[in-house]
Amino acid sequence: MTTSCLHYFSEIGFLKEKPIALKLLKNVSEILSADNVAYCLMFGTLLGKLRHDDFIPWDDDIDIIIFDVEKFESLCIKKLKKIGYTTLIDRRLIKNSDSSSSEEKWLHCGYRIYPDDGFPIPGQKWKFPWVGVWEPAYTGDDFTLAPEKNIYQKSNFFPLQTVKFQGFPVLIPVDSPKVLTSYFKTDNWMEFCVPPDLNHREYKKTHAPLSYLPVAEVMAYLSDLET
């Protein structure tokens, strides 16, 4: 099973567009920080920082949480547009979990920020690569990130910490390991990984089987492909 899954890791990633993705994250981070908009890396991008000190080689999107959404909307979107980035509302058609029927509803999940000269994605309005902006929905000191159901504690995020990501500053949660363990429901995310399930470049499922592989084995496989 392990050998048959490895090829999925080489088919997904920023690849030649990695410099564009790094520039995108750098520019977004600079504008948010200049306007004192609280944000942090999240999901695979946060895992990439902790485990690879870079993007995960088989990840092909950028995830951040923006906590000051109103300030982002009023100050940052126009500034991003001036330097060639469009901000698109992320609305998804979600099955209504409160209904026993197949009723669906549109759910506001956040935003997508992408370069105007990015690569078209079949059937989508946004372009590749992009930053996925997740907007927290609070209940007291806890919050969720729609459409995800996982509950996060604000105390695991604040005060946000500044670290370097490929040479430029970004913000991460104060207790990033606890945040990732909460998301992945396991604490072995430094040692094990799963094949990517979504190709963001084409925005379609990879249909990779769910399997847990040692990160060292996957990295060795990718290294062999480069030689």
Sum up the structure in keywords.
227 residues; three-stranded antiparallel sheet
What's the SSE blueprint?
Layout: H1 2-5, H2 7-11, H3 18-34, E1 39-41, H4 43-52, E2 62-66, H5 69-82, E3 85-95, E4 104-115, E5 119-120, E6 127-128, E7 131-134, E8 136-139, E9 142-145, E10 152-153, E11 161-165, E12 168-172, H6 176-184, E13 192-193, E14 198-199, E15 204-205, E16 213-214, H7 215-226
Parallel strand pairs: 2-7
Antiparallel strand pairs: 1-2, 3-4, 4-7, 5-6, 8-9, 9-10, 11-12, 13-16, 14-15
Can you put this structure into words, describing what you see?
- This protein has 227 residues and is α+β, with helices and mostly antiparallel strands.
- The protein has one domain (15-175): Beta Polymerase, domain 2, CATH 3.30.460.
- The protein contains 7 helices and 16 strands.
- The chain has helices at residues 2-5, 7-11, 18-34, 43-52, 69-82, 176-184, 215-226, and strands at 39-41, 62-66, 85-95, 104-115, 119-120, 127-128, 131-134, 136-139, 142-145, 152-153, 161-165, 168-172, 192-193, 198-199, 204-205, 213-214.
- The strands form 6 sheets. Strands 1-2-7-4-3 form a 5-stranded mixed β-sheet. A 3-stranded antiparallel β-sheet has the order 8-9-10.
- A hairpin with a 4-residue loop joins strand 14 (198-199) and strand 15 (204-205).
- The longest helix is centred in the N-terminal third of the chain and has 17 residues, at 18-34.
